[in-house]
Amino acid sequence: MIWFRNIAPGLLVVIVALATGQAVQEKAQAPAQTPAAQNNATVSASEQKPSPQTEKLLKSLGGVWSIRESLAPQAPSSNGVTGKGEIVWRRGPGGFSVIEDYRSRQGSQDITGMGVFWWDEAAQGYRTIWCDSTNPGGCISFKNVVRWAGTELSLVEDYESNGKKFTFKEVFNNITPDAFTQTLYGSESGKELKVDQTIEATRSTSETPK
Question: Which residue, 48, 43, 127, 38, is CA-closest to 94?
Answer without folding.
Answer: 48
